[in-house]
Records
---
Amino acid sequence: MKIELVAVGDELLVGDVENTNAGTLGRRLTAAGLRVSGVSTVGDGLDAMIDVLAQAVRRADAVIVSGGLGPTSDDRTREAIAAVAGVPLHRDPAIEDWLRRRYRGMNRTLTALGLQQADVPEGGRSLPNANGSAPGIAVEIGDVAVYAIPGPPHEMIAMTEEQVLPDLLRRAGEPPIRAQRQLLTASIGEGVIAAMLEPLERELARDGAVEVAYLATAGQTRVKLTSAGPGGAAEVDAAAARARELLGGCVYGEAGDTLAGVVLDLLRGRDATVAVAESLTGGLVAAELTSVPGASASVRGSVTAYATDLKGSVLGVDADLLAAQGAVHPDVAARMAEGVRDLMSGTYGVATTGVAGPDPQDGKPVGTVYIAVAGPEGTIVLSLLFSGSRGRIREMTTVRALDLLRCVVAGLPAEQDPACTG
Amino acid sequence: MKIELVAVGDELLVGDVENTNAGTLGRRLTAAGLRVSGVSTVGDGLDAMIDVLAQAVRRADAVIVSGGLGPTSDDRTREAIAAVAGVPLHRDPAIEDWLRRRYRGMNRTLTALGLQQADVPEGGRSLPNANGSAPGIAVEIGDVAVYAIPGPPHEMIAMTEEQVLPDLLRRAGEPPIRAQRQLLTASIGEGVIAAMLEPLERELARDGAVEVAYLATAGQTRVKLTSAGPGGAAEVDAAAARARELLGGCVYGEAGDTLAGVVLDLLRGRDATVAVAESLTGGLVAAELTSVPGASASVRGSVTAYATDLKGSVLGVDADLLAAQGAVHPDVAARMAEGVRDLMSGTYGVATTGVAGPDPQDGKPVGTVYIAVAGPEGTIVLSLLFSGSRGRIREMTTVRALDLLRCVVAGLPAEQDPACTG
């Protein structure tokens, strides 16, 4: 079954908004064993939408259109689908009723344009939207299944998971699933990971049953092990076991895990808690930890001591140390971690200080970073030097802080293990 | 002149690699006054490439194909272009010579597949690649200009800047630059903004010189005013002035501004500082403020009091209040804002508390949010109810907290203005 994606919106063409939906859907459908055969982006103009949509319908067995379902005059996806299907639009009274109640509940006016969100091409059905006002559409054009889903990522994802994907899988019958496992690592570059896995790559090259690929994103590297054909789960499992042997504590989890989630699980399993003290990351470490549902069981809280004097007055870093060394120093990181651990009564304290840029600070170059973890067994400090933009330096620091915490909580040799110091 | 982009590669369809080239090219061509009318992504298969490329050539005046030019068996862009043009491929001896020298210099073997990089469709020409091995192609198909450029972003950008863009601008003659302004708002939905601008939309509908479009992203709505044809800056300026009149304090900035950046500018202009107390946002408000270079001039710091007892022990919220009302209460938000203002000696304190989910808390439903700003003139609290995922509720809360701070610092009537309370 070939599936095409069509993203609608002038903002995507001019690059005001990145079309992240294409990647998100591509990964999700691929993981479900389905095949995305093409992606198109088209503006808000009706004629262009009709043309692009008709081509997608001609080529594919299913088409997912995202965007253009909202309450403004440039939302014309409903019209375009009806035109390609050659049917009129009908107003769905149940959706109209739901929209009226929803807008009343939000104390907002439902305009005539807003009401168009209840329109469905004849023969199609509405897809309820639990996360927004614009319902989706499912309709058959010939023997092609066409779905229209909202453009905002969180609405798009929910409607895909709950309504579109089950429908597609039902239509596809038994999908030709290739076995895959993904090992997640943080703190080490793609090149180093590949070098560590060289023995495995040599072994795999002999029989060709499992393919290895690397996918690097800010501070993290994903190792993908995929069977060369359908099936092959046993071969992939064996390759994954060998890869874990070679990578050791560097692997923090597998597909579906997040670094913050793994850290929180480790803490919960040990009845331990964490408190965070941040400087250059300015709240990112705490935000990442608290993004996980149930974080309140293990996260005490955090202090961003952005101004240097607050590192003393709130976190208790010695004023003489700050005066002598400035805020960017390994001892300051250590005292911040210990200070926030005391202040918030956490089992562990984790701290970041450094220079995110654009300007050097206290005589230290941009990218200088110190990360500390304080715990029952003492305090560990990492000294790092990152390159890149302010945003990248903050992001890399956040990943490394979470990974150092992981190593310390898990009892991994944080000072020797390349996962934790490399 | 309509320009279509075609990105080639299986890795884009499955989402292993995000198609950032589309956004990059979209922004670059738009900035040059050119118009991207469509984007397609297609896999490495020859038939699919020929089909997609032929459609793009049918619709557009120029087509830029990225990717599929390299030295492996799945690089078939040259073949596809020749097939659509209906001409054979010829080997360019100058490029062949250059390739042989280049590979020799890198001590690498030039295979038969590698030599195909010297192939050009009859009637076309090679585009030299200063940053990689794969030369590009420029060829006319009918009266459509077709360019093939490498997929790796740095090669793609360099070849676009130096060779494709000058050629496109020459073909376009005087580029039809359309004037545009973008007004940025936070805190109000797209529908409400559209209703507030209805008088302007009516006025503009009469002469049709300026088009209005809305772009909604988490908690923010962008109003885009674009001239219908080339020029029209005066008309767009007049429409922008009228829109600002209708939207009042809801507009926080224009294209290029960020909400956090605007808030920091306001604070700096008043020699004021801010301290943040977070619960459900868990560090996001502080992280957003400190993402702006130079934030240290105005951001004192923040406390994430995620555990309820820390709202008392660190921020000084009255223990009886917490015991009686729980952590999710407007008075708790107010005391948190006042407490962090005191603790960190800020001019302003801003606080968030609420239920991000997935489970209700203290008898309050998911999405219940209180935001407070404490300042020299007293304390204001917003009571809100958001829908959506945990991530979205945290994101919306962050935007609203920054926007309430903006209104208070700017002296806007935060309690009446829909920008601040709607």
Note: The longest strand of chain A covers residues 35-42.
---
Amino acid sequence: MVVESREWVLSAYVPQGVPTSEHLKLNTVTLKLDSDSIPDRHIAVQLLWLSIDPYLRTRMSGHQDGLYFPQFELNQAVTGFGVARVIRSKNSSYIEGDIILNPFCPVAEYCIIQPSDFLRKVDPDAGVPLPDYLCSLGVPGFSAWVGIEVLGNPKPGENVFISAAAGGVGMFAGQLAKIKGCRVVGSTGSDEKVKLLKEEFGYDDAFNYNTETDFDAALSKYFPTGIDIYLENVGGKMLEAVLNHVNKRARIPVCGMISQYNQVWSEREGVRNLLNMVGKEVRMEGYLVGSYINRFGDFAKEMESYIKQGKISSKHKIYNGIESFLESLASLFSSSNVGKVVIQVKQEMEA
Amino acid sequence: MVVESREWVLSAYVPQGVPTSEHLKLNTVTLKLDSDSIPDRHIAVQLLWLSIDPYLRTRMSGHQDGLYFPQFELNQAVTGFGVARVIRSKNSSYIEGDIILNPFCPVAEYCIIQPSDFLRKVDPDAGVPLPDYLCSLGVPGFSAWVGIEVLGNPKPGENVFISAAAGGVGMFAGQLAKIKGCRVVGSTGSDEKVKLLKEEFGYDDAFNYNTETDFDAALSKYFPTGIDIYLENVGGKMLEAVLNHVNKRARIPVCGMISQYNQVWSEREGVRNLLNMVGKEVRMEGYLVGSYINRFGDFAKEMESYIKQGKISSKHKIYNGIESFLESLASLFSSSNVGKVVIQVKQEMEA
């Protein structure tokens, strides 16, 4: 069996700005998938769903500071979190038809990989729609859970602020904080998403940072008694504004800083009021969900229970076909999406 | 009994720069200290020693952001941490001759106060020289202990960086980290102090930030394997440089940010690379020692034991007479001091 497989290759690093077709090329390669062509212990997989996340951008800058995820290699297919189907196996742990979750899946319609510890097999009897593994029960849901429940340590009645609140992490973070009895306010990029946060995700309030551009005034208005937990997804000016409204012993779990990803660091606007962290004894802590993987079972059990009880809503923005990778990635930086961005690489009916 | 008492009064707030005689006036007041003039439950005290600390500056800015200590009131005597002798008492818990520690002592040669929970009586049999209560066994020693031992959680072999390393907090912080088996490097403002850190306080290495002004290059040189704990005393550019050299799960206890105190916050240079906190999962936490007062007993026991074993050295810079308040305060911002700055308000022999 021979397939034509399209894959996205990084041809040049992107020091600043949004990646374009100058940096990412859609190539077509021919793959032989007969038994002789697949090495021992390897499997051939077909990509079904791909998660599109802001951190992908941070692997394309080419900055050699080494302080974030390692940079993608040039002239190789980039990777992302994917759901794939095994179509050939020369590994005794996998059979044809298995559905796998792969955090470092090449962004390619087909590929041959050697299974690693990172792979997880989906239980076909769980009845979970596949995109949910990239969403409520995947990295965004887990990121929200670690930020709010592990690092945020929310107490009933506390005031919680979520930035990028209608994004993949934000939508779950707000709902988890509400379940814990907190008052929750979010910032997001459109009036439509403000409405969604309040009506669909149960936020107590929300504002559009593109129209309420004086963040300090907005936070005075929405947090008259201050902020106890800020789940940081954007950085820059929003963080600076938050630090003028923190309560004693506020917690700031730092999930990401999307406002910073398209700039070289020396040109970023700095945060000038970190001194407020002393007077208010604020704890700010960066995290990567991979470090909390020993808690994934606790998370999955809790989240599944909330989903069954109808306590968690979820929105996906679905792009179709692997050719939409560049467009879907750029969309993360334009306030245009609602919910978690995913690509349906292959229609499930045909898969 | 009537005394002439000189006291320092704040006549104008200091929005930026170092306080001068335009802002702080040395007034002389006449105090009646006979029994009829002292209210019930009050005591009259004579100030012996006064601690001069960077945080005092933050109480003089007049900024109403309310995020640090409350601002001093205009046309009132400012306050600081003092050692004083009771000279008259109408409070049954105090007798003439008692030596007290007062964290909010008016900067005045004499005053009449109502004792509060903040006061602590010195045990005259402890044999501790009085300035040590403002130093190794006082707020600077306790600040160092909370930063290094409580928040820093040092492990043998870890790399520890201390800024303002020859200052009141820094000199103890480095010694405590050495006792815990860490490798310790400090930054300080003169070659003389670099020498002192290495020869007197046991630092493994140290550099002069006034001559090695490329902090990023300096940290590359002194921390080839990265920084695990940074005790933050200065903020601004130094913090930014540190964030380019942090190791995975580094801890940054924030004791203060002296580089920021003389500027209005909107004119401060911001920190542009907080994103590094995500990739390295850094925890940065501001603290005020008052919040750890329940650990003061543990601290005092441990520190006294180290002092008896000769494991802790200490330097004071002593100014003489209450008239030196303005000069001694300004000296904190000029790299000119070694060790903890105190004023000997009254010679002990005469007291």
Note: The domain at 139-308 of chain B is CATH 3.40.50.720 (Rossmann fold).
